[in-house]
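Internal ticket - ligand job 345, adenosine monophosphate:
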Amino acid sequence: MKGILDFIKENVSATFAREVVAVGHRIVHGLDLSQPVLLTPSSLATIKQAAVLAPLHNPPGLQGIEAATEVFTDVPQVAVFDTAFHQTMPPHAYMYGLPYDLYEKHKIRRYGFHGTSHKYLVEQAAVMLGKPASEINVITCHLGNGSSVAAVRGGQCVDTSMGLTPLEGLLMGTRCGDMDPAVVLHIQNQCGLSVKETDTLLNKKSGLLGLTGSNDLRAVIEGAGKGEARSQLGLDMFTYRVRKYIGAYTAALDGQVDAVVFSAGIGENSPFIRKLIAEPLHTMGMQLDAAANDKAVGRAGVISAPGSRVKLLVIPTDEELCIAEQTLQVVKGGAAAATGGAAAA
Ligand code: AMP
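stdout (structure tokens):
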């Protein structure tokens, strides 16, 4: 953090440190906390407690808070939670089929993640469709090393692919995504793995990495191109699962979908993957325009054919801007009243 600040002082603005009014942090899990909050001993304790549910994200998030607090001693620090956008999910989407006690006593439910990104994508999709966000139904696909899909009705999230933790849903770089929960019990019994070892296996050694040897989709595409069977399998599984979720969320939206949005490292940069996902969906009114698809790399674009009933959009996500805006709102509006927030780092 000190290094970054020195770099900015030398290369951008000597007075930068004094211009910072707040620091906004992306925090993946905050248990019951979902609206942006000022970081206080109490909110920090909740984030620490939630680390067990987001082992890849909350610990480095806490390190970031510590480092930023050391460097920016006099400014408020704000947490913006990845779960916030998904708070509008109805109970039939967020509950698991488990004894109700587990929800009441331990808050076991689906929370969803990448919320800041999905929120930004919905706002931008509304601009591209020329309608208010409250009037659009969209399916947003955040496809990166971590990947998730959200079903959005009238601008509000009604379902999303990640669950209690960011492990559920799509096949990811190192995460397994959906599977029969009995697999976990079986692995522990058969292989003698501890809870911690199983957690590492599912979060850090599975997904594309576990199947193909690489969590970088570019390497997987290259391997498949050379005829490597496992890379081809990884590619097929990744794209099949995204298609499956788009189909499921079309049903969740009663077939009334205005647009499907592709974003994040894979969704923004790979026309090849978008083609594998979208082309077979033409029977669902999603007609890809090959030339427009090839052109939209790292920038926004409409990639559906002019007559397509459902628009296909590429939108580069901007979680940082969204976090900064929400942080500023917290700082200006006071933490208690805050629903969005602001940041300046
Ligand atoms: P993110 O987590 O959003 O930074 O996305 C990282 C993922 O995007 C990695 O799996 C990269 O391999 C993938 N990615 C980035 N550029 C491309 C590309 N041109 N084609 C395919 N995958 C890409």
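Auto-summary: Confidence is low (pLDDT under 50) at residues 335-345. The chain has two domains: 2-81+321-344, 129-314.
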